[in-house]
Amino acid sequence: xxxxxxxxxxxxxxxxxxxxxxxxxxxxxxxxxxxxxxxxxxxxxxxxxxxxxxxxxxxxxxxxxxxxxxxxxxxxxxxxxxxxxxxxxxxxxxxxxxxxxxxxxxxxxxxxxxxxxxxxxxxxxxxxxxxxxxxxxxxxxxxxxxxxxxxxxxxxxxxxxxxxxxxxxxxxxxxxxxxxxxxxxxxxxxxxxxxxxxxxxxxxxxxxxxxxxxxxxxxxxxxxxxxxxxxxxxxxxxxxxxxxxxxxxx
Amino acid sequence: xxxxxxxxxxxxxxxxxxxxxxxxxxxxxxxxxxxxxxxxxxxxxxxxxxxxxxxxxxxxxxxxxxxxxxxxxxxxxxxxxxxxxxxxxxxxxxxxxxxxxxxxxxxxxxxxxxxxxxxxxxxxxxxxxxxxxxxxxxxxxxxxxxxxxxxxxxxxxxxxxxxxxxxxxxxxxxxxxxxxxxxxxxxxxxxxxxxxxxxxxx
Lengths: 250, 202
Known about the structure:
Chain A is of the alpha+beta class. Chain A has a single domain, classed as paralog of FGE (formylglycine-generating enzyme) (Alpha-Beta Complex), CATH 3.90.1580.10. Helices cover 29% and strands 8% of the residues of chain A. Chain A has eight helices and seven strands, in the order H-E-E-E-E-H-H-H-H-E-H-H-H-E-E. In chain A, the strands form three sheets. In chain A, strands 1-4-7 form a three-stranded antiparallel beta sheet. Chain A is globular. The relative contact order of chain A is 0.21. Chain B has a single domain, classed as Glutaredoxin. Chain B is built from six helices and nine strands; from the N terminus they run H-E-E-E-H-H-E-H-E-H-E-E-E-E-H. In chain B, the strands form three sheets. Chain B has a five-stranded mixed beta sheet, with helices on both faces. A two-stranded antiparallel ribbon of chain B has the order 1-2. Chain B is globular, with a radius of gyration of 17 Å. Chain B starts with a helix and ends with a helix. At the A-B interface, helix 3 and helix 8 of A face helix 1, helix 5 and strand 7 of B.
C-alpha cells in the first residue's frame, strides 16, 4: 500500500524514468563566472536511451519524420540512413539497440510527442557523473578509465541492446559506454562555434587539462560544440527527461 | 591520444556533412507554393511582433528576408548587429530595399516586447513596414537558434551571450547567404541577394 507521499512521487516520475538529483554541474568552460557552478534541481530521466523500436513507432505515427519526408533543415542526409527502409530499420538492426543517426530536431520532437523533453546539458551531466555507489563517480576505482576505454573504441561498431549495463547511483543505465546523447541546449555559447573557442579546442585544451576527469568532460563539450541541429552520427542517440517540480525549463 | 583527437575531428566533419543549404530553382516558383524541404518555413514558431500581434515566420514569403536573433536590453553586440543589417539595406538600390524583409527574434521572451521594440525601431530609424522585431517561447527560441546555427546562453543576470549571425533567406525560406560575427563586409550578402533575385523571383 502506497503512502500518499510515495504515490505523489510515483505520479511525478513517469514510467520508464527515474528521479535524478538534485546535483551540481561545474562546466569545464563556463559562459560566465556566475555559471561556473550550476545547481540542478531534481528531475526525471529515462532509465535507458530511446531504442530503435521506440523510434520506429514514432516515425510510423509521425510520417514527417520519415527520412524520405523530413525537412532537410531538420536532419542531414545521413538521418536514419542505417535503416533498411524509410519506415523501419529492418532485420539487420537490433530493435533493442539505442536509435542513432537522429538529429536534435528529431530527438526533440520524439520527446515532445511523449509529453517529455530533452535533458538540459547540466541535467545530463549530473546524471552521467554518478558512480555506482554515489552521485559522483570519479573517485570510484576504474570509473574514469572505463569511460576513457569506451571513448577510445572506434565508432561505427554494432551497438548492443540498452539496459544490459549496471545502473548507476541514480538507477540510470547506459549513460556512459553505449552512445553519445543529445541535450536540449547543445547549442550553448559556452561551447560556441566561434573562432575564439575553436582556437581553444584546436589548441589541445583537452590534452593539457589537469586531470582525466576534465578530459572526459572535455570530450563531450568538444563533441557538442561540433554539432548542428540537423547533425546525425552512428554513435549519437538520446533519451528524454521530464521536470518533477516547477516549470519545464529552469 | 591521437586516436581520440582524430575522433573529434571526424565528428566535426559529420556536423557539416549535411545537404548544402542552398538549392537552385531553375523555374519560377509561385509565392504560395508549399515550403521546400530545405526551407526554414518548415518551422512554425509562434512569433509576436512589435505591435504585440502574432506574426508568422513566413510573413515576407516570396521576398528575400534577412533574419537574425538579438535581445533589446543588449548594449554590446546587438546594436552593432542591427547597424550591420541597416548598413546592408543602405547599400541596396531603393527597389531592392523595398522588397527586403527583416525578421529579428529576441532571445529574451521574458523582458522584450512592443515597448522595447518600438524604442529600437525609433532609435535606429528602421522601416516598421519591413522590419519585424519579435518574441517567441523559450522552446521556439531554441528551435530557431538551432536552425540558424546560433549559439546562446542565458547568464545569471538575465542577459544573454550569443553568436551574431545574419542569415539571408530567399523567397522560399531557403538559406541563400550567411555572415557570422559583427562588422562583417555586407557585399557577400548583397551578392547572394542579387543572385537569388535573378534565379526565379521575377
